[in-house]
Amino acid sequence: MTSPELVPILKHMLNQSPSLDLVFQALADPTRRAMVERLVRGPASVSALAEPLRMSLPAVMQHLQVLEASGLVRSEKVGRVRTCQVVPSTLRTAEEWIGERRTLWERRLDRLGEYLAEHPDHPQDGSAP
Amino acid sequence: MSERSATHATFALERTYPAAPARVFAAFADPREKARWIGCHDEWETLEQAMDFRVGGREVNRTQPPGGQVHGFEARYHDIVPNQRIVYSYAMTVGDERISVSLVTLEFEPADGGTRLTFTEQGAFLDGHQHPAEREAGTGIGLDRLETLLAGEMAAV
């Protein structure tokens, strides 16, 4: 039972942690999300990452820097090839913290709404049914 | 897991209830009332529950899922403005591990003939511990594709 006025609003996802800030900033861009989506399937070289993106290698490198700064992706240069891979723990940390707490409290606030609808008056001492 | 880390995050939720601020406030202030809506796991056993709703007062709640580890919640009320605001800090434990320490601010404001409730949690999430009970949820974090990414990540492992 959810009445229309019980609309959850995620007002903001500000945080004091540079890493989470950077993670969400990094994922706010469609190109970088595409890069991460590619990398969750497995490591890739920068040129392989750039191939489907239709942009210059320097532009891809810039996006890569943002992803690396956020901790979502790390890269390593072996010989002339820079290989990138996703850092799963960073993805998970961000998702879990916000997701789990928010969902818990959304459920609770839904239940509070139902409770208030069923008990419009504050029960007096000892009269709780 | 012995790897030490702290992740900081803040989120806020806002609801409008068709009830006066005093009524909504009472649902948080009265331990008997609060117990009737806050529990999300009816099948969990309550091992300890105490609530002393005053500035400096503590709230303790220890529950255990069937066959699982004890989940502890220990809070202290720092600021109470009747019908307007509640500020408390709390630590959560699972088994012997402290998984998070948070500050919660609840604000009650008259709005549209009812009450706008704003819940803000600022937390330090410790050592990357997962909270298994809530993990199933993980949806709608405002980044619509992150879930897809995680699914892909699982599949890739």
What does this 3D model show about the protein?
Chain A has five helices and three strands, in the order H-H-E-H-H-E-E-H. Chain A has 129 residues and is mainly alpha-helical. In chain A, strands 1-3-2 form a three-stranded antiparallel beta sheet. In chain A, a hairpin with a 2-residue loop joins strand 2 and strand 3 (81-86). Chain A starts with 17 loop residues before the first helix and ends in an 11-residue tail after the last helix. Chain B has one domain: START domain (Alpha-D-Glucose-1,6-Bisphosphate, Chain A, domain 4). Chain B has a seven-stranded antiparallel beta sheet, covered by helices on one side. In chain B, helix 1 (21-29) packs across helix 2 (31-38). Chain B is globular. Residues 131-157 of chain B have low confidence and may be disordered.
What Rg of chain A do the Cα atoms give?
22 Å
Oligomer designation: heterodimer
CATH class category label of chain B:
Alpha Beta
Low-confidence stretches of chain B: 131-157
Shape of chain B: globular
The residue fraction in helices of chain B comes out at: 10-25%
**Individual helix count of chain B:** 4
Overall structural domain count of chain A = 1
Percent of residues in β-strands of chain B: over 45%
Question: What is the β-strand count of chain B?
Answer: 7
Which structural class do the helices and strands of chain A define? Answer: mainly alpha
CATH architecture of chain A: Orthogonal Bundle
Describe this structure in a few short sentences.
The complex is a heterodimer of chains A (129) and B (157). Chain A is mainly α and 129 residues long.
Question: Which tags fit this structure?
Answer:
heterodimer, A: 129 residues, mainly alpha, Arc Repressor Mutant, subunit A, 5 helices, elongated, B: 157 residues, alpha+beta, Alpha-D-Glucose-1,6-Bisphosphate, Chain A, domain 4, 7-stranded antiparallel β-sheet, 7 strands, disordered C terminus
What secondary-structure arrangement, pairings included, does this model have?
The complex is a heterodimer of chains A (129) and B (157).
Chain A: H1 18-27, H2 30-39, E1 44-45, H3 46-50, H4 57-70, E2 73-78, E3 81-86, H5 88-118
Antiparallel strand pairs in A: 1-3, 2-3
Chain B: E1 6-17, H1 21-29, H2 31-38, E2 45-51, E3 58-64, E4 71-81, E5 85-94, E6 97-111, E7 114-126, H3 132-135, H4 146-156
Antiparallel strand pairs in B: 1-7, 2-3, 3-4, 4-5, 5-6, 6-7
